[in-house]
Every structure is written in C-alpha cells, then in structure tokens.
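[Meeting: bench + compute handoff]

Bench side (C.D.) handed over the final construct sequence. Compute side (W.E.) agreed to return the predicted structure before the next meeting so the bench team could plan truncations. Sequence as handed over:
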Amino acid sequence: MQPAISNGQQIQHTKSKRHFRFGTAFMYIILSAWALTTIYPMFWIINNSFKVSRDVMNKSFSLALDPVWINYTTAFERINIGKSYINSLIMSGGTVLFVLLLGGLAAYVLSRFTFAGKRFIYSVLYATLLVPAFATVVPVYELLIKTKLVNTYWGLILPQTAGNLTFATLVIAGYMTTIAKELEEAAFMDGCNRWQMFLKIFMPVSRPAFASVSIFVFLWSYNDLFSALIFVNKEKVRPIVALLNEISSQYGTDFGLMATAVTLTVLPILVIYLFISKFIEKGLTEGAVKG
C-alpha cells in the first residue's frame, strides 16, 4: 500500500505547481519579447533588401511578395562589396588566428606552470581589461605610421590582436585549469614534449574554449568600425563595416541598397555562429569552474 498524502502536502504540492507554471509562463514571455526585438528587425532588414528605395519608404512593413534583385546587383557591381568582404575576412580571420595561437600558448603557461610573478601577471591582465580601446588609439596610430603599416592588412590585424589577447588568455586559461593532471602525466610518459602536449592534448581538449573565444574575437574584429575608419580607411583595404559608412554619402537615401548591405554584412556572422554555437556555452561555463 502507498502511504497516504496529508492535506498539507497536497496544498504545498499545488502551490509549487502553480509557482512552476507561473515561472515557466513568465520565462516564455521574456524569451518571446527578446525574440521579437532581435529576430524581427533582422527579418525586416532582409525583407526590405528585396525592395527598391521608394517601396522601403512607403511600404516598409509589407512583405516583398515581388522581390527585386537590383540592390544585390548594385552592391557587388557598383560599390564592390565583394572586395570589402574579402578584406574583412582576411583581417578578422587573421586576428582570430593570431589571438588563438598566442592566447592559447599564454594560457597554457599560466594554467599549467607555477612560477614567481604568476599572480602579478594575472593582475596585469585583469587591469588591462579596464583600459578603454580609444585611449590607446593615438600611440598605436603613431606606431603604425612609423612602421608604415597604416592602410595595410597588418595595420588592423596587429592592433586587434593585441586588444583581444587578454580576453582570450583568461578564458582559455580558465578552461585549461580544469584538465586533469593525470592526462598531462600520461602524455609525458608517452614521450611528448611541451609543444607536442600543447598541440596534441591541450588544444583538442580545450576546443570548446577556443571556439568560444574565436566567435567573440571574430565578432569584435568584424564589427570594429572605430579602428577600421582610423587604421584602414583606403578603399583597397576597407572592410565591410567601413563600406556601410560610405553608402549613405555615395548613394544618398537609397534605403534598399543600405538594407542589402546590412544583410550581407550580418549573414557571415550568422553562418559562423551556427557552426560553432554548440561549443560556446560549454567553453564559457566549464572554464569558469575549476575541476
């Protein structure tokens, strides 16, 4: 026989069930509101990219049932958005590559070695996160002028690598500290040196952290209009975010073309995020807790 449930237990169970239902409903309301404020603007931009400028002004919220492709043709033929795409991918991709390599090596040393001054290095790294980027623009720009790197790919890759290196080091180091010591000892017994251990053991195991860092660094580099306007303002190396700044001045109030340019700017980010999104939460959460 099952034990009888008292009236007090039934009342408590009913209250908790109601509270659970209310909390769940409230959560769905918040998520729906968030989706409305993020997904709908993206849909609005894509929808208006298939309209001419006049229809964007007069029928902004109507569906593009008869889509036109003139805006996309103009974007690639007249304003050469394809070249800006290549520039952005080269500079943002190069930044991600150097940040992951240098940040990964620094994180490996900080997380797996014990040496004098380790706490001081961590303090300096955390302190650099408090320095605003615009405070370093003048000395960085003068340094780039002296080295003749202004308006080159390196003129944006190097400053952005330096700016994102602290974040990458701290995140990856936090994750590497959770890797079992026994795995490192087994690699030593198999004859691995430190470089081989980093490449064959720590990088594959820390893949979620590397993926998390890569998407954030790519986003920040790809969307960095401030640095792009200062360090690479020539057309031959102009990234796509800087090109958006030029469309309104070159083509007046062609809102259809502007919507198309914004759509083409956002699409690579969405595609990249879809491929590595499963690693982001794992990399950020597991690296925050030491095992």
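W.E. noted at the follow-up: The chain has two domains: 7-48, 74-286. C.D. will use this when planning the next construct.
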